[in-house]
Amino acid sequence: MRFRTLEISSAAEIHIKERQLEITTDDGVVVVPIEDLNQIMVHGANIRLSTMDLSILCQNKVALMTLDDRYLPTAIVLSFEGHTRQSKLMHAQVNAAHKKYMELWIDIIKQKITNQSRGLSIMGLDGAERIAEYVAMVDEESVDYCESLAAKEYFS
Questions:
Q1: Residue 55 sits in the same domain as residue 23
Q2: DSSP E strand stretches across the chain
Q3: Residue in 109, 92, 113 with CA at minimum distance from that of residue 143
Q4: Contact, 6 vs 37, CB < 8 A?
Q5: Tens digit of pLDDT for each residue in 83-123?
Q6: What is the pLDDT of residues 9-53, one digit of tens each?
Q7: Which of 6, 46, 60, 66 has the fewest Cβ atoms within 10 Å of its own Cβ atom?
Q8: Are 22 and 57 in contact (CB under 8 A)?
């Protein structure tokens, strides 16, 4: 049963030996059974892990997450075929038509512009009406242009 979330935040070398995660630091060696691990969060410099060990973690469905200096996730390494929903989603994304991507991108940008307008309106600042006008102008050819115009108004 996978129940452990492991955080590694100081210089360490990580190796896998006999289905055990071996973490070597200046303080000594810690050994954790791989089958106990759900995820590993890595934060800090000089943490070394080989690609073969990373592959073994993925084969055992252990997620590895890297964190930045504010402890926000910067990357997540997951098993490619480890979860049926994840696998189906990735295959669907690869096979999706460009038209569908464009429809989704237009929806995202329209919502972003709407949120910018609403934010200014809530704060009682000028420009909310001008920004809201860009939503109606967004189409496949002008989506990036309208986004930049709205952003210029918003951040001014």
A1: yes
A2: 4-8, 12-17, 20-25, 28-33, 37-42, 47-49, 63-67, 73-77
A3: 109
A4: yes
A5: 567 667 777 777 777 788 889 999 999 999 999 999 999 99
A6: 999 999 999 999 999 999 999 999 999 999 999 998 899 999 999
A7: 46
A8: no
Which domain does 34 fall in, by range? 4-90
Matching residue, tokens 């006008």: 133
Helix (H, G, I), strand (E, B) or coil at 97: coil
Q: What is the dihedral of CA 75, 81, 83, 87, to 10 degrees?
A: 90
The answer to whether 64 touches 51, Cβ cutoff 8 Å, is: no
Domain end marker among 60, 90, 120: 90
Tokens of 5: 């979330």
pTM for the whole structure: 0.52
